Amino acid sequence: MSASLPPFPKPQEPTDEPVLLELSAGADEPCLRADAARNRARLLEAATRLVAEHGAAGVTMEAVAAAASVGKGTVFRRFGDRTGLLMALLDHSAQQLQAALLSGPPPLGPGAPPAERLGAFGRAVLRQSVDHLELQLAAQPEPTRRHSFPPQRFLSGHVTLLVRQAVPDADAPLLAQALMGYLDPALVHYLTKDCGMPLERLESGWNDLVERLIRTELP
Amino acid sequence: MSASLPPFPKPQEPTDEPVLLELSAGADEPCLRADAARNRARLLEAATRLVAEHGAAGVTMEAVAAAASVGKGTVFRRFGDRTGLLMALLDHSAQQLQAALLSGPPPLGPGAPPAERLGAFGRAVLRQSVDHLELQLAAQPEPTRRHSFPPQRFLSGHVTLLVRQAVPDADAPLLAQALMGYLDPALVHYLTKDCGMPLERLESGWNDLVERLIRTELP
């Protein structure tokens, strides 16, 4: 399963500016009609509920059609096949997170101190990972592209900005990468599935990590 | 290219005890004759020099034979094919690191304060990664096995022990995973190749990360 996002120019330096995700739907279908867009959103919401209830294995074209009360043909026309549906689902959730980071309410969005925003960021990414773990693992690019992959660069760019605000004298891109490593879906998989750790422990570990790295105490 | 190490039982918790690597050569060939063992070591040393000088692409069966002044047939008999040679090379370097951590001189080996040992550990792993980057990336297991892979578990177990000694009240396995994330070969590849950062900057970043995480100053 390969990712659906377009290739991105190689950075010379870890980006300080968040890389805006290009929306697959928008890029492919600039003139998506309003009712088609509503239909697509409804299908993705149904698929999101199915993932939350049954994991990625529960997301079939048939199940999504039934959950959204539409015909199966509609789902096939919209997404092509199950891989297309799953990639659209990952894009959808990445875009929701991006919108929340850029313009949502604080502390995830702008307006809170950087330490609090970092805390909220990690908790949001961990929750999203736990919900979409199988999809994220399946969509993970090969090792040489894992960190230059645009969605990853958007998130690490966001963390770099917050780290720089919190500790202006640090090597922000490197501390940001250390933070991002803790949120790697493969690690979340290992800790929750192989080691049986609850999400709450990973969240506490994230808060502790942020507090130590930026030498502060979170509220 | 798949790794040559045997499967390992699933941990229920990130291990606190380092997992000893099983030596591929020892496991396959318990009665390797002394001259054959010397021969093997000589070939691996020749291959290591070739990697340092020309990268993994420079390691061919022919080049290793020439560098060790033996016939090409000897190299084929010893390692089977190029993949076998490359995996033996990775094992060899992992075993050298393990020996240095368990019984080498401080600060990498026992006898130095845990903070200094962590500092030396990261610098050693980063140097090894830069030398063997292509091999390590090619040998990296799929995401769901990346963190339970025995060589990875040995290293994260070692770091967990040192973190626990340095900060007894912390969630040591989670802080250890945060540290290990910084040493991920895929990240080292991104930072050195895509972003053009020198190894020295990554080493400074490691020292800074250790100092912040265990709230101390390295000498």
Automatic annotation (TrEMBL), chains A, B:
HTH tetR-type domain boundaries: 37-97
Entry-linked PROSITE patterns: HTH_TETR_2
Alphabetized UniProt keyword annotations: DNA-binding
GO MF terms held by the record: DNA-binding transcription factor activity; transcription cis-regulatory region binding
Residue spans binding DNA: 60-79
Highest taxon, organism lineage: Bacteria
Protein name: Helix-turn-helix transcriptional regulator
Protein species of origin: Streptomyces apricus
